[in-house]
Amino acid sequence: MFYELTTMHEKLGKEVTKSMVHIYTAKQYDTLPFTPFIHMLTNIFEEGKRCGDIRTKRSSETLSLIALQLYFGALKLWMFSHLSEPLSTFMIDTIAMFIDYMKKEGD
């Protein structure tokens, strides 16, 4: 079971990272295609649900909050693409939430 949980959290971490890289890359080119991003968000929710099914309801809720943070960060970038602050703020907030989640869950 420990191995299964570790694997799921690795997948989740990869999905969060891919989403952040996607948004950062889109920002560099002043475009934000939402189709791949929505697919990534779906993957994050699915990984979160799998983790929550095995662990606790709190885990699942925390992962949903991380996904929402990514989504709102993307909207900020789209609406305020001329500013660099939303990018750095949302990336820092998302990383902090993910690290906090991992610490609380003991991984």
From TrEMBL:
Highest taxon in the source lineage: Bacteria
Designated name of the protein: Transcriptional regulator TetR C-terminal Firmicutes type domain-containing protein
